[in-house]
Design a protein that fits this description.
Elements lengths: L4 E9 L6 E5 L10 E2 L2 E3 L6 H13 L8 E10 L4 E9 L13 E5 L16 H8 L1
Parallel strand pairs: 1-6
Antiparallel strand pairs: 1-4, 2-3, 2-7, 5-6
The structure holds 8-OXO-guanosine-5'-triphosphate and magnesium ion.
Magnesium ion (MG) binds next to strand 4 and helix 1.
């Protein structure tokens, strides 16, 4: 059977205090209840930055300009039914106040506290990288 490769663009929003925004997935979704970086699936014809700007508007109601997205790292993880390839961008500048439009909750957390929040397995290697950055 052909491998299903899923491209998801995600973002670590960093506030002026150096805290990172994480969002809790709704209970009915795949991996419900886990905390993640806002973002979502690539749609045909989009560049990854366009995917992310669209998702940040849809999920958080914020406007991000493309030069404010800095590539940081990526996750590559084999889930049971698909392989996730997820570039993680850093963003420190946006317009608007993030609201949980599609998530159960949002939380600003210090990098060293990220491991207190259950995250999808693909995200676990990203935590020490953020800790080193911040
Ligand atoms: N956004 C996001 N998705 C992640 C992360 N880690 C991770 O494994 N994923 C997985 O990537 C996949 C796509 O994420 P998503 O549910 O946000 O996609 P989406 O916003 O387009 O939503 P939709 O599928 O309901 O339209 C999910 O299987 C999700 O569990 C993460 O940190 N952020
Ligand atoms: Mg999403």
């Amino acid at each position: 059977m052909a491998l299903k490769l899923v491209l998801v663009a995600a973002c670590a929003l960093i506030d002026s205090d150096g805290r990172v925004l994480i969002a809790q997935r709704p209970p009915e979704k795949q991996m419900g209840g886990l905390w993640e970086f806002p973002g979502g699936k690539w749609e045909a014809g989009e560049r990854p930055e366009e995917t992310l700007i669209r998702e940040l508007q849809e999920e958080l109601g914020i406007t991000v300009k493309e030069p404010c997205l800095a590539p940081f790292t990526f996750a590559s993880h084999a889930y049971a039914d698909f392989h996730l390839l997820m570039p993680l961008y850093i963003c420190r500048r946006w317009e608007g106040i993030p609201q949980a439009k599609e998530h159960t909750a949002l939380k600003w957390v210090r990098a060293k506290e990220l491991s207190d929040y259950p995250m999808p397995p693909a995200d676990l290697p990203l935590i020490p990288m953020l800790r080193d950055l911040l």
